[in-house]
Design a protein that fits this description.
With 275 residues, this protein is mainly α. The protein has two domains: 2-89, no CATH class; 132-269, Arc Repressor Mutant, subunit A (Orthogonal Bundle). It has helices spanning 2-5, 18-26, 28-35, 50-63, 79-89, 104-108, 119-128, 134-143, 147-151, 156-172, 181-193, 201-208, 212-224, 238-243, 253-259, 265-269, and strands at residues 11-14, 39-42, 72-75, 197-198, 228-231, 247-250. The strands form two sheets. Strands 1-2-3 form a three-stranded parallel β-sheet, with no helix packed on it. Helix 4 (50-63) links the parallel strand 2 (39-42) and strand 3 (72-75). Helix 8 packs across helix 15. The longest helix has 17 residues, at 156-172. It is globular.
Length: 275
């Protein structure tokens, strides 16, 4: 997406490219001199050492009184490693944007609106929305909101199988606080089956056979990696918001359906979820 929206003068380099990666590792200063700026660097987490050189360049621009905003755009697909390196090297010098799945407006090719609870705003939204029957709604839930699924003819089950395997074997396996991946997978399935339900760590721990602190840590991992969203209840009293039990939602309904092994939208519609 950033490649398509970048300015003409902004160059692009991916650190999946062996030559670019070797240059970035061996001589970060020469790497930035070679590619200049503005620059879009993809898969930057492969060479975290470039961040220190980037910090030096950005700070030098600031000292010289030059505009240093937007000099570098960084993208990557391993969120834990990315954020760890960014937090250590570029704290206070970077803005972070998380890419969620496609919204209904994006999937339907219409303009998206910021949600507002005012009645007039809701009426305007209803005029623009494409009407759907109940079967179409469940089909949308089943398919999910992953951009690649919407833009290609990929087999749904194959896509989510690869997604889960990559998530477990690459991202989760690197975390010391996760022991057996088989237990974490069971936890992932349990959380998918409990989507839109209250978040109770004791229930999770009992069902998976782990401790409550471990359950809390694993929930935090899912939240930080953009798999789930924890919704705290709304009260005018701030204290109640903090102490009342929140609910947990999978950000991609297609992933939740896949983990629960629901074979079709009709299965969900006919009451596959036990609530």
């Amino acid at each position: 997406m950033l490649y398509h929206m970048k300015e003409k003068e902004r160059r692009y380099v991916t650190l999946d490219d062996g030559n670019a990666r070797r240059l970035a590792k061996q001589d970060p200063a020469l790497f930035f001199e070679t590619y200049g700026y503005p620059l879009l660097i993809d898969e930057f987490q492969r060479v975290p050492s470039i961040l220190l050189e980037m910090k030096r360049i950005v700070d030098q621009k600031a000292l010289e009184g030059e505009d240093n905003n937007g000099m570098y755009w960084l993208t990557g697909s391993q969120k834990f490693r990315m954020m760890e390196n960014v937090s250590e090297s570029l704290s206070g010098r970077i803005a972070v944007f998380d890419m969620a799945g496609l919204s209904t407006a994006e999937l339907e090719g219409r303009e998206g609106r910021i949600f507002h609870p005012a009645l007039e705003e809701l009426r305007e939204r209803m005029k623009e929305n494409q009407s759907k029957d109940i079967h179409q709604m469940y089909e949308r839930i089943f398919q999910g909101s992953m951009p690649k699924m919407a833009a290609t003819d990929l087999n749904r089950d194959r896509f989510y199988t690869d997604y889960i395997n990559t998530y477990l074997e690459r991202d989760i396996h690197e975390l010391s606080q996760v022991g057996k991946l088989s237990e974490f997978y069971d936890f992932l399935v349990f959380m998918a089956a409990r989507t839109a339900q209250e978040l109770k760590y004791s229930e999770i721990a009992k069902a998976i056979g782990i401790s409550a602190p471990t359950a809390k840590e694993w929930v935090s991992i899912l939240e930080k990696s953009g798999v789930i969203f924890i919704l705290h209840p709304y009260f005018t009293n701030l204290t109640k918001r903090l102490v009342k039990t929140p609910k947990v939602y999978f950000l991609d309904t297609g992933l939740a359906a896949y983990l629960c092994r629901w074979p079709s939208a009709e299965t969900i519609e006919n009451g596959a979820m036990d609530v």
